[in-house]
Amino acid sequence: PQAESLLGSHDEPPALLHGDLWSGNVFWSTTGPVLIDPAVYYGSREADLAFTECFGRFPEDFYDAYHEAYPLAPGYDERREVLNLYHLMTHANMFGGGYIDSALSVLRRLAD
Description:
By secondary structure, the chain is an alpha+beta fold. Helices cover about 50% and strands about 10% of the residues. The chain has helices at about 1-10, 45-50, 60-70, 75-95, 100-110, and strands at about 15, 25-30, 30-35, 40-45.
């Protein structure tokens, strides 16, 4: 119920997403970022942004520039955990270990 209420109130139009946007799929060149290995789909732009924070973060100036160009709607910090839950559960399934604990921790918070 909490996940539904967090995501259900978010009504931005779908955007074309990279789909696998994490630091291992971005190279920083002198002319700007180079994105590789896309898994393209339409969804909330917040999904791509949230994934950049799931397993580490991009340089802080990336987020500053992003927020300046395209500010996020209120509640993003709360939605981020829901948006990253799929990735945590996938990693828990593939690799086990701490990913299981991370996924369970998010699920418990959402169940409260």
